[in-house]
Write a structure and sequence with these properties.
The chain is α+β, with helices and mostly antiparallel strands and about 150 residues long. It has 3 helices and 5 strands, in the order E-H-H-E-E-H-E-E. The model has no long low-confidence stretch (mean pLDDT about 80).
Length: about 150
């Protein structure tokens, strides 16, 4: 990521880490001050991505390593989630079908749909045995009204 503002966090394989992730995001968003809309979108998408990795990506008999990096690149906020879990490309998951019951609900698919709704672009690749999901968020341009 080509940014001097990039920040990185390494997480454990534990859903309780989502609280630490939220605090971390709040800390850098307060310091860097992106728009509140972008800050909310980044936080929601990172939490959904990390929750999916923790719930579905744990390697059998191994330790799950998750790294999250956020920074600026070409005027956009870019988030990178990297893990050593099972290969899983969230960009190929179709939009969720309304479940007939709560037992049929696929929470992970709903989280991926939320990421698609908030991120301007999603890209997945598998490199050196690691999953790499990149999310881009473009800050909305302020509308300018002509005087008069």
């Amino acid at each position: 990521m080509a940014s001097v503002e990039a920040r990185r966090l390494v997480l454990r394989n534990d859903l309780a880490e989502l609280q630490r992730l939220a605090g971390w995001i709040q800390g850098w968003s307060d310091a860097i001050v992106p728009s509140s809309d972008v800050s909310f979108a980044v936080q929601l998408c990172l939490e959904e991505a990390v929750a999916n990795v923790i719930m579905y990506g744990s390697p059998k008999g191994g330790t799950l390593e998750i790294a999250v990096e956020v920074g600026r690149d070409d005027g956009a906020w870019v988030a990178l989630i990297e893990d050593n879990g099972r290969q899983f490309d969230p960009t190929t998951v179709p939009p969720p079908v309304p479940p007939t019951s709560l037992d049929d609900a696929k929470i992970g698919d709903v989280g991926i749909h939320l990421m698609r709704s908030f991120a301007d672009h999603m890209h997945y690749e598998r490199r050196d045995g690691r999953n790499r999901l990149t999310l881009r968020f473009v800050e909305p341009q302020a509308s300018v009204r002509p005087a008069g």
